[in-house]
């Protein structure tokens, strides 16, 4: 049998307050509950865990090339993101056949 969680447990899994779960639900940015009881909505625990894992994934792109992914709950600069993945410029140049990198062509995709 799959494990179910209510409002409180969902917030606990995410490291949030119950209020934050309510705000995300009102904005339509939270998983749809399996069922709504009078006291609380009910979700599959695995759905909340998947939601948690999907949040904060940020892709580091160079032009259309995926350079890496970072798990974060804060905004950051390209330099900070590249540092987090220990970006190796020489290796990247060799692997992709570039002579040089224009750092303005990096972008972060949330």
Key traits:
elongated, 110 residues, 2 domains, alpha+beta, 5 helices, 3-stranded antiparallel sheet, 23% strand
Question: What does this 3D model show about the protein?
Answer:
With 110 residues, the protein is α+β, with helices and mostly antiparallel strands. It folds into two domains: 51 residues; 53 residues, no CATH class. 38% of the residues lie in helices and 23% in strands. The chain is built from five helices and six strands, in the order βααββαββααβ. Strands 1-3-2 form a three-stranded antiparallel sheet. Strands 5-4-6 form a three-stranded antiparallel sheet, covered by helices on one side. The protein is elongated. The model has no long low-confidence stretch (mean pLDDT 90).
* Range of strand content: 15-25%
Helices and strands: which structural class? alpha+beta
Spatial extent as radius of gyration: 19 Å
Q: Sketch the major β-sheet.
A: 3 strands, antiparallel
Shape: elongated
User: Secondary-structure element order, as H and E?
Assistant: EHHEEHEEHHE
Oligomer: single chain
List low-pLDDT spans: none
How many separate structural domains?
2
**What number is the mean pLDDT?**
90
Widest beta sheet: strand line-up: 1-3-2
CA distance, first residue to last residue: 34 Å
What is the strand tally? 6
Helix content: 25-40%
Number of helical runs?
5
């Amino acid at each position: 049998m799959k494990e179910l969680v209510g409002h409180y447990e969902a917030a606990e899994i995410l490291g949030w307050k119950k209020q934050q779960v309510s705000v995300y639900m009102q904005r339509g940015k939270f998983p749809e509950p399996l069922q709504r009881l009078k006291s609380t909505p009910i979700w599959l625990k695995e759905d909340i865990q998947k939601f948690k894992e999907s949040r904060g994934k940020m892709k580091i792109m160079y032009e259309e090339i995926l350079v890496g992914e970072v798990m974060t709950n804060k905004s950051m600069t390209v330099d900070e993101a590249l540092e987090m993945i220990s970006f190796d410029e020489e290796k990247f140049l060799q692997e992709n056949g570039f002579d040089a990198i224009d750092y303005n062509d990096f972008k972060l995709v949330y």
